[in-house]
TrEMBL record:
One of its GO terms (biological process) is regulation of cell cycle. PANTHER family: FI09246P (PTHR10411:SF8), GROWTH ARREST AND DNA DAMAGE-INDUCIBLE PROTEIN GADD45 (PTHR10411). InterPro entries: GADD45, Ribosomal_eL30-like_sf. This is Ribosomal protein L7Ae/L30e/S12e/Gadd45 domain-containing protein. One of its GO terms (cellular component) is nucleus.
Amino acid sequence: MTLSHDLGLAASGGASDHRNERVARGVGVALGKCLCQALESGRLKSGILQSASLLQSCPERVLLCLLPVTQNNVCDHALHIHHTLITAFCIEHGIRFLRVNGEDLARAVIRLTDAPSDCPDTGCVRHRASVLCAAPKSDVSCVLIKSPKDGGVSFEDEVVLDYYDEMVKSLVYPKPVLNIPG
C-alpha cells in the first residue's frame, strides 16, 4: 500500500473525499506546528521582497514555500504575477510549494509573532518568536520556511513534505488549498 493510497489520493468519490479532507486537516495542523518551529528557530521569511531575496541568493536553503490564496488574489494582478513567478522559480529549482488559505496563514503568522503586551518574560516562546521575525507582520503574501542548519527536519516537517510529494504525483486537480486550524 502506498502513501497515496493511504492518503486516499488514488481515487475520487464519497469515502475518498472524506479521507482527503481528514488528511488535509492533519497536514494543516502539522503545517501550523512547522510555522511555529521555524519561527522559534529563526527559519521563517515572510513577504514578497524578503522571499525573493532568499530565493535569489540561496534557493537550496528553502524547505517550503507557502503561497496564500484569498478571494482578493483574483483582483490583485500584481500579486497574481508575483505568485506565478515564484511558483515557476520553485518548480525550476525543485522547491516544494503549497497553496494555503491566506486568512489562515495570516492569522497563524500574526498569532505567532504577536508577543502579548503584558508578557514581561523575554524568554517566553511568543516573545522570542516576535523578536526573531524580521518581516512585517502584515505581509504574508509569500512565506518561506528555511531548512534547518543541521539538515534534520522535524516530524511535522516530514508530514508536510510527504503530503506535498504525494500531491505532486496525484492526478487531483486543482491542487488543494490547505487550511491551518486556528
